[in-house]
């Protein structure tokens, strides 16, 4: 049985492409998902509602605490859900000012974490422990 050069070349290219994708994804070159998992998908927007930093949500009950992180500038805001809305998370003006980039009213790359009723975030102290 004789192996033709074009078959060896095609197989080599396929193997190199697979390795490139695996390595690229592992190092974050080809990855599109955020490193953290978010309880909401899609963009975070805001309402012109005033007051202390807060949010409304169609997914979480009133009183739920959330941390919204803008992955483009690593700024985060901790907010409490104050009522219903038509989206997963809708920040009020004060909360949006804490996380947005100047001139932008939408946070497309974000992570929304539920702070109560969920496992503590990595690096957070266990219940009952005191940090020095």
Explain this structure to me?
With 132 residues, the protein is α/β, with parallel strands linked by helices. The protein contains 2 helices and 6 strands. The protein has helices at 5-26, 93-99, and strands at 45-46, 55-56, 65-70, 75-83, 90-91, 110-114. It has a 6-stranded mixed β-sheet with strand order 1-5-2-4-3-6. It is globular. The relative contact order is 0.19. Mean pLDDT is 73; it is low at 19-34 and 119-132.
* Count of helical stretches: 2
- C-alpha Rg, in Å? 22 Å
In terms of DSSP E residues, the strand content is 15-25%
Note the quaternary state here: single chain
Strand count, sense and closure of the main sheet? 6 strands, mixed
Strand order of the largest sheet: 1-5-2-4-3-6
Give the distance, in angstroms, between the N- and C-terminal Cα atoms. Answer: 72 Å
**Secondary structure tally: strands:** 6
Give average pLDDT, whole number. 73
List the main descriptive attributes of the protein structure presented here.
6 strands, disordered C terminus, six-stranded mixed β-sheet, 132 residues, 2 helices
Write the layout of secondary structure elements.
Elements: H1 5-26, E1 45-46, E2 55-56, E3 65-70, E4 75-83, E5 90-91, H2 93-99, E6 110-114
Parallel strand pairs: 1-5, 2-4
Antiparallel strand pairs: 2-5, 3-4, 3-6
Summarize the structure.
This protein is of the alpha/beta class. 22% of the residues lie in helices and 20% in strands. It is globular, with a radius of gyration of 22 Å.
């Amino acid at each position: 049985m004789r192996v033709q050069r074009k078959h060896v070349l095609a197989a080599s290219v396929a193997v190199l492409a697979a390795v490139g994708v695996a390595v690229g994804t592992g190092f974050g070159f080809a990855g599109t998902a955020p490193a953290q998992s978010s309880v909401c998908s899609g963009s975070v927007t805001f309402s012109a509602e005033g007051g202390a930093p807060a949010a409304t949500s169609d997914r979480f009950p009133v009183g739920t605490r959330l941390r919204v992180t803008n992955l483009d500038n690593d700024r985060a805001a901790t907010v409490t859900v104050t009522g219903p809305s038509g989206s997963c998370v809708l920040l009020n003006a004060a909360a949006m000012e804490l996380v947005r980039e100047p001139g932008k009213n939408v946070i497309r790359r974000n992570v929304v974490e539920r702070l109560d009723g969920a496992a503590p975030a990595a690096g957070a102290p266990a219940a009952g422990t005191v940090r020095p």
